[in-house]
Design brief:
Helix 2 (38-63) crosses helix 11 (293-302) and helix 5 (142-160) crosses helix 6. This protein has helices at residues 2-14, 38-63, 67-72, 119-132, 142-160, 178-191, 233-237, 247-256, 266-270, 275-285, 293-302, 311-316; strands at residues 22-23, 26-27, 34-36, 94-102, 105-112, 169-171, 196-198, 205-207, 214-216, 225-227, 261-263, 306-307, 319-324, 333-337, 340-345, 354-358, 364-369, 372-385, 388-397, 406-408, 410-412. Strands 4, 5, 17, 18, 19 and 20 form a six-stranded antiparallel sheet that branches. A five-stranded antiparallel sheet has the order 12-16-13-14-15. With 417 residues, it is of the alpha+beta class. The two termini are 36 Å apart. The chain has a domain at 306-359. Strand 14 and strand 15 (340-345) form a beta hairpin. It has twelve helices and 21 strands.
Length: 417
């Protein structure tokens, strides 16, 4: 039976062009479909909307905060000159919350507001899997909304930098990374922008001084807007090329001077630091007047206790998680008990400030892999697109979700209301 399942899986995914159904030479996309209830769809969308409203509100505080506060939240100093830029009427174009389903309801563990992946999987592939298994796709119609959202953002961004005709929009990523490259090509496809192209990161050319300062493609055509959705801003700011030229900082200076537009906007990066969740929780606990009672109720319902030191958990003898404020894919995350690590995963982001968050178990689920049934732990990824709840879906992996976790499609039985 395992052989038949593997054969059927490969036959299904091989028909989808340029999709990374395998990553790191391992199975990534499962040929299986998790059945969920209508009520779960409603619950996830409600949580996404309410949690985003809190992040949006706290972002307005961070944009007015002094540099000392930004430093306490873990932002790199080289980012300070750019963090208060406001170039769009919303904080992020495409963001993704990670939720855990607990006995007390959904709990958000982080917000990937700047460069979230898992896009094509939920906006396109999930639908194909649902169709095969004769289930309703909970994300039906969201790909059209995604396209509209990108076009809308491009319009606002172009207006802000003074481009009145059709802007030239370049979608960029590291060319050698199939997931990054094909995610950007997918976004370009759904956006349907008249004048757009995919240009690998290393082919972008920057002129930082003079009357022609700006960003150009390899043909010398000036770029109006750079969409760098898979290139984290904290990495961009550290980017240095030959002769020690700080290309990332120079690019950001061009964004600041409105010589080029950038998506996601800087305001998205401002929400990316996990220390923002500690700020939210601390203000709630202090009954700060900035949050209304309704806000505080949402925070208590959907957020986990999160702090910038681990003493509150040690004092209460609670299990907690240590994670870097800008870590990704579960790297450098530790599950700790009484101050001692019981689970450690990687150490790539040790140089960043850490936050400490109450530990919650991820729900267990047996999933069907090409090597048979396997016990996995489920994490929900839920997108916010131009401030509206959008596509969501499931990762299935270890107790700490990492880059080897599976994509588990999901579907609803019967019509979705």
């Amino acid at each position: 039976m395992e052989g038949n399942h593997k054969q059927a899986r490969n036959h299904f995914y091989n028909k989808i062009t340029d999709f990374w159904d395998r990553l790191y030479n391992q199975e990534y996309a499962l040929f299986d479909c998790l059945e969920i209830e209508h009520s779960e769809v409603t619950e996830i969308r409600k949580a996404t909307k309410e949690v985003y409203s809190i992040f949006k509100k706290i972002n307005q505080v961070c944009q007015q905060a002094p540099d000392e506060t930004l430093e306490q939240l873990g932002f790199p100093k080289q980012a300070f000159p750019f963090l208060r830029m406001k170039l769009l009427p919303y904080e992020t174009v495409i963001g993704r919350f990670d939720f855990v389903k607990t006995k007390e309801g959904l709990k958000v563990i982080e917000f990937n507001s700047d460069t979230p992946t898992f896009i094509r999987e939920l906006f396109e592939i999930n639908s194909l899997v649902c169709k095969h298994f004769e289930l309703q796709d909970p994300n039906d119609g969201e790909v059209e909304e995604l396209g509209r959202a990108i076009r809308n953002s491009v319009y606002h961004c172009a207006k802000t930098i003074g481009v009145s005709n059709h802007p030239y929009v370049v979608f960029t990523a590291h060319e050698e990374d199939i997931e990054d490259r094909e995610t950007m090509k997918f976004l370009m496809k759904v956006a349907q922008i008249k004048d757009s192209a995919f240009v690998p990161l290393h082919q972008l050319q920057i002129i930082s001084e003079g009357s022609n300062k700006g960003v150009y493609d390899p043909t010398g055509k000036r770029i109006s807007i750079v969409y760098r959705h898979t290139y984290p801003l904290e990495a961009l700011l550290d980017d240095i090329i030959e002769d020690q030229f700080p290309i990332g900082i120079e690019f950001m200076k061009l964004v600041q001077a409105r010589a080029v537009g950038m998506l996601n906007p800087v305001s998205a990066f401002l929400m990316q630091s996990k220390a923002v969740m500690a700020l939210i929780w601390g203000m709630m606990e202090a009954q700060h007047s900035y949050f209304t009672e309704k806000d505080r109720e949402s925070i208590r319902r959907y957020f986990l206790p999160t702090y910038l030191d681990e003493d509150p958990f040690i004092e209460k003898n609670e299990v907690y998680v240590s994670k870097p404020v800008f870590g990704r894919e579960g790297n450098t995350v530790e599950v700790k008990d009484a101050g001692k690590a019981v689970v450690t995963q990687g150490e790539s982001y040790q140089h960043y400030l850490k936050v400490y968050q109450k530990y919650v178990d991820l729900p267990e689920k047996m999933v069907k892999t090409e090597n048979g049934q396997k016990k996995s732990y489920l994490l929900i990824g839920s997108f916010i697109i131009n401030e509206k709840p959008s596509a969501f879906g499931f990762r299935a992996g270890d107790k700490i979700t990492n880059n080897l976790s599976y994509f588990l499609p999901c579907g609803v039985k019967g019509a979705i209301t």
